[in-house]
Write a structure and sequence with these properties.
This protein is an all-alpha fold. It has 11 helices and no strands.
Amino acid sequence: METHDISTQLGNELFCSGQQHSPAGTANPLGLSLICPCKSPWLVDRRIFASRIICLNFSCVFFIVSLIVLILYVCFRLVTLFMDELGHISHWRAIMAGSLAGMVATIVTYPTDVIKTRLIVQNRLEPSYEGILHAFYKIYHQEGLRALYRGVSPAILGAVPFSAGSFFVYISLDKIWQEPIIHFTPLQNFMNGCVAAAVAQTLSFPFETVKRKMQAQSPWLPHYGGVDVHFTGMADCFRQTVKNKGVLGLWSGLTPSLLKIVPYFGVMFSTFEFCKRVCLYRNGYIESPLNYKLTPGVDQSLHPQELRELKLLRRENFEPRKSALEN
């Protein structure tokens, strides 16, 4: 799905028509392009083939886990900074904290995104890179450190409409459902996440298109990485894309991108809301994680630690009375 998405953004029509063996730097299935440095990938020893796939999978898992941990840590620290004295945070401050967290995570992990794009768009029969580490080494020594951050400007600028759009849509859907967000079912949360992701991705997709073109274009790749337009920077890439493909060319590849990201955000939002209810249930604020019915006699303004101390104090006061009655 993502391979087709990137090839469409780059304007590579040969891949979309199935001619994956063209030498013109066409996009290709990611797995073969990562591990097959020879012209006939099926001549590779099966054991080497399997070992490289295992190493690739571990590398991808490592990068994904590192990205998730970094985003969560940065988001937690920024949310703490934007809180007021009572621990509350407004909608605008939440948007700023989320946007800044996404920008920091994007800048730190951006070289891996460039490497992923290069590995996808390279020619399968005559690959320029043999794997993740080889791509990192070759790009750094041939094109310099700046090449690993080529396209980071539209990525950072695109994070603003994406974060703001998804957040505003998500918090405004309670007016459509005509009930508070806390009463939404898992299905409603899933649908809200899907709608928010679709709107946000559509708003920020022109920046994503320009980013992919900037990542793929390289004088060291055949036909400059298979990019349909040639440019000198972000603004020139916007201008050349509109000139050659029209305004709608900035949204080329939106459909496969939505098919990937919409269910992803739907599951993420619904899982987040369910985990929040589980935490509220374990701390004694609600009666069940399946609904949002408040626990009778519990002060909802207390923090979890204060609530636990109150429960412990009540238990200590009750046990001496019980023992006295038994005596």
